[in-house]
Amino acid sequence: MKNERAFFGPGGNSKAFYDAGLKSTVDAPGWVASIGLDAYEYEAGSGLTASAGTLLLIEALIRGVQISLHAPYFISLSGIEEVKRLGSLRYISQSLNAAKLLGAYLIVVHTGSAAKITRVEAMRLASDTLCHLLEEIPDNGVLIGLETMGKINQLGTLDEVIELCKLSPRFVPVVDFGHMNARECGDVFTSAGDYLIQSVTS
Q1: Are 197 and 4 in contact (CB under 8 A)?
Q2: Which residue of 52, 97, 103, 132 is surrounded by the most CB atoms within 10 Å?
Q3: HEC states along 64-110?
């Protein structure tokens, strides 16, 4: 049995952050630490807009807070148009570079859609995209987290995410409990005990 430390914190800036009189994400890690939390996800879902200077400033103000970065939502590893699908690699590369400046240990990536194709084909395309990633984007030490998704027509069940992560140690599963519960119409997590995760190592 292996015990892993859990980190807790918000994704983006909550109403409480702004109610505290704060306005800039530069202040977010310090505020998170001040309320007793130790994790923060920098949200870049709509695209990366922060300058390198801003990201470095946030990194300089981190005090014991674990940082991750959510990559743009428009990334699709399983897109049926090859040009657009492989174009996602540019956004992943930008996210990895931004995460390095930010001092983040991981970026979070959506795996894509399975709406117009079979799940088998979606997995094939996603695997192909990730293989191109491994060939074309150097490892800068930031992990690439593949997130479980909440809609039936999205690629990203827990089993699918784990299978994709087997391609490389650079890929790790990001388990979104809310997404998993939504996907199963609330039937997965019905009590606090359902959220307990045990890691078993052989």
Answers
A1: no
A2: 103
A3: CCEEEEECCCCCCCCCCCHHHHHHHHHHHHHHHHHHHHHCCCEEEEE
pLDDT tens sequence across 161-175:
999 999 999 999 998
DSSP code, position 58:
H
- Residue 41: which H helix or E strand, with range? strand 39-43
pLDDT above 90 covers a percentage of the chain that reads 72
**What's the mean pLDDT in 56-85?**
92
Domain annotation for the chain: domains and CATH numbers: 26-195 (3.20.20.150)
Length of the chain: 202
Compute the Cα dihedral for 155, 146, 93, 68 and give only its sign.
Answer: positive
Start-to-end CA distance of the chain, whole Å, equals 9
Return the half-sphere exposure (C-beta side, CA atoms, 13 A cut-off) of residue 164: 36
